[in-house]
Amino acid sequence: MADELLAEIERLGARLADARGAIATRIIGQDRVVDLTLAAMLSGGHALLMGLPGLGKTRLVETLSTVMGLSGNRIQFTPDLMPADILGSEVLETAGDGSRAFRYVEGPIFAQLLMADEINRASPRTQSALLQAMQEHEVTIAGQTHELPSPFHVLATQNPIEQEGTYPLPEAQLDRFLVRIDVEYPDRDTERAIVLATTGITEEETRQIFDGPSLIAAQGIVRRMPVGEGIVELILDLVRACRPDGEEATDQVRKHVAWGPGPRAAQALMMLCRAQALLEGRLAPGPEDVAKLARPVLLHRMALSFAARAEGVRLEDVIDEMTARITHVERAA
């Protein structure tokens, strides 16, 4: 059984390398963003992309839809968007014989890859329409439950600076995102490559590497990857140490953190560490994976106290210090 799993992991690793290469033809210089997004999908979860306009977030989702062979829909979130615009609704139809009956018309959420563009522009009522779908992969309309396609992933985008006319995502919504991915400005050489690649007569076309069933199979392999007991303890130590009311919290966390991560954070770290190791061609995760993924997993599951914000404390620095203390791995610049 171990040899069979090893062979499956190696075959999947080679296929993922092809997928990363296909994505790189259209997404230039965002290797970290691509890897985190792929890791989220391999883990069966959803991702929140945080970044300024024009950094390729929409392009990334469209490219992933093609490379992963998934049916995709895009919803542009606006303040007047209603839950029915996402989930669908029942309409009253009149048959030829004059009889009337309700028929359910599916909304755009019925896709394997849903892009929720500028998700924080919709009202809390509309945002909450995604809660059941993201957690249970089904929606309930008029008392009837409708299964969503499988696999089902939500990739949401959010502008971190333009806050007029927006509604902050509630904690319950944020917690359902497996990972938060910060999309940053490219360096000069990368930006030069982007300009040259995207302003010519033609652009590189990507190709399909996966499809729905093969992605589901890959998710099964990730769940079967071995994780050492030491890594499990590191994950638990880190998550529990970030809870200000927990016994394992440090004085810094108790002083600066208002609320900390729940069990979903530990689950996310466990899955993402496996996926990250697989993407890097390793057979099992190590402490460096826990350290590398601490920020993306914990940043949206914690909040600073008012006093800490007044003092100019950054949540990123708190997480980095806790991670380095527990894993003994310093965050790379």
How would you portray this structure in words?
This protein is an alpha/beta fold and 333 residues long. Helix content is 47%, strand content 16%. It has 2 domains: 1-81 and 108-224, P-loop containing nucleotide triphosphate hydrolases (Rossmann fold); 227-333, Helicase, Ruva Protein, domain 3. Strands 2-5-8-1-9 form a 5-stranded parallel β-sheet. The protein has a two-stranded antiparallel sheet with strand order 3-4. A two-stranded antiparallel sheet has the order 6-7. Helix 10 (229-241) runs parallel beside helix 13 (287-298). The longest helix is centred in the N-terminal third of the chain and has 23 residues, at 2-24. The radius of gyration is 21 Å and the shape is globular.
